[in-house]
Fold this protein.
Amino acid sequence: MHAHDRFVDTRMGRLHYLEAGSGPPLILAHSNGASAYEYEFVIDELAKRYRVIAWDMPGQGDSDKPPRFFSAHDHADAVVALMDALGIQKASVAGSSVGGSIVIALGARHAARMERVFIVEYPIRTEQGWAEGWARTEKIWTNTPQTMEVVSPRMRAGKATPAFLERWNIDRAKAGPKTCLNAMWAMRLHDVMADLATLTAPAMVIYGSKGPAIQTRAAMEKALPKAPIFVCEDCGHFPMVDDPASFIAAIDQGFATLG
């Protein structure tokens, strides 16, 4: 990976990001407990066509911890603060899982700054669904580090290498249990259906065919009936890791057809 590590001071704190390439800006938002390195397998290829900026969300990776609880809208404001600090007026954004919640908030709250949004592996849940699964959520995010036996079933066979697991656990340790749980609360408390109803930025939804989010595809199609859906076959919750080429194809298709 040839991306450069960079930091920038913003009104939302100091943010770390990886940057590579030139062209139309593409901001990548990672999933919970991860970092910009979640996209390490796709950055170089995407950088051939786009100015790729993969951030560490506040409190995760090497970005400053927020001074208080950050909602999905606060995280969206932090993306805009990053754009302002880098002199970017409009950008396309792709966010995975909790990053998907952030880009939905961006599309609703800051549509004028969005060229297009890519909602990756975002599961739509009711409050009842969140509540029923919350004990498991707390168990997942308060147990660090994780073992190969826990991580490998979430990936395509052979993807969870020892080096990948080491990076995975480094990122989880950097964020810590409380920050990760706060990110899950941000997802749970996000009135995502209200934001989807007001989302005007061109949007594409990306699923892994074996990921958990595709089980809520019908709800997403009802909320965004005009948004194309791209399914990365034989991928789980992390299509950018399982099948980088398929993930890149989705992004390229979105740039070609949206907006």
Notes: DSSP finds eleven helices and eight strands in the chain. The mean pLDDT is 96. Residues 4-257 form a domain with the Rossmann fold fold (CATH 3.40.50.1820).
